[in-house]
Write a structure and sequence with these properties.
The protein is α+β, with helices and mostly antiparallel strands. The chain has one domain (about 15-100): Orthogonal Bundle (Arc Repressor Mutant, subunit A), CATH 1.10.10.10. About 30% of the residues lie in helices and about 10% in strands. The protein has three helices and three strands, in the order H-E-H-H-E-E. It has helices spanning about 20-30, 35-40, 45-55, and strands spanning about 30, 60-65, 100. It has a three-stranded antiparallel sheet. The protein is elongated. It starts with 17 loop residues before the first helix and ends with a strand. The structure holds zinc ion (ZN). Zinc ion binds near residues 70, 86 and 88.
């Protein structure tokens, strides 16, 4: 028996990747990690890995996050991870960053 069977050509339409799906979603609106995770049915951790990959090849814009208590806006550091707490008032109530793709 041969160890590997011949690779079949899989039609592209059927194998739309999570990443492509995320790109399509992000082109339409601003979404948080949680939104994306629910929409594509993957964990937030997995979604954030895909997001950083998308950010390397596309214009991924990140909005916020900001402190819900004092309104401090965190700088965009190219990271998809939500900061732990506010450097100004030490509050841990931080809004989720929103992501979107500009054409
Ligand atoms: Zn604050």
């Amino acid at each position: 028996m041969p160890k590997h069977s011949k690779k079949q050509t899989i039609p592209q339409e059927r194998t739309k990747t999570i990443r492509q799906e995320m790109i399509d979603l992000l082109k339409g609106e601003k979404l948080s990690l949680r939104d994306l995770s629910q929409m594509v049915g993957k964990s937030e951790k997995e979604v954030s890995v895909h997001l950083s990959q998308i950010g390397k090849s596309m214009k991924l814009e990140m909005e916020g996050p900001e402190c819900i208590k004092c309104g401090f806006v965190f700088e965009r550091r190219g990271k998809t991870k939500k900061p732990g707490k506010c450097p100004k008032c030490q509050s841990t109530r931080i809004s989720s960053p929103l992501f979107t793709i500009r054409d």
